[in-house]
Fold this protein.
Amino acid sequence: MPAIDIKFCGLKTGPDVAAAREAGARYTGYVIFPPSPRHVDPVRAGELSHLAHGTETVAVVVNPDDELLAQIRDAMRPDWIQLHGSETPQRVEQARAHASKGIIKALPVAEMSDLDAAKIYDGVADMLLFDAKPPRDADRPGGWGHGYDYALLKNLYLSVPWLLSGGLDPTNVCQAVEAAGAQGVDVSSGIETSPGVKDAELIHAFAKALSETA
């Protein structure tokens, strides 16, 4: 298995960021969405991202308006903005000006037909992220710790890179990567002791599991 890029997401504290860096994260993610237990405001996201030397920083937002995007740009200057809501391809294009590297578009997956959206956003977004479809009554689109049939992604051919997300943890990430044929993964709840509370040991265990199968 080749080396897998890791995005540790929902980081809220300096020790969270330090553990992610030590574990070899390529991306560090900061959720700016008040309903999430992982929420930090743009100023705090900026403070944390400044600690994340050597990683590519990601601002995670849900259907953001122009004012919020401008606040994030000014406070954080993220490498990437991850759009995790129902943003249209046009909105993806508009948001790109606020990120130095580009836009990650998250797409919910439960069955094969859900992957039709990937064709719409392929080449519009600069990267895609496939996450588990949230519960019907959910107040946020991600971070539920739910998995899905990762093998749905196995023969997906895209022009942009993509990340596997949804229900990953140190015990299942290797099998999930193999099933999906993924070259990158995103994890949040799978490295927590409770919603929003990251655990350094789990962060390192997640990275170690991947490195031992590489």
Summary: The radius of gyration is 16 Å. The helical segments are 14-22, 42-49, 66-76, 89-95, 116-121, 173-180, 200-213.
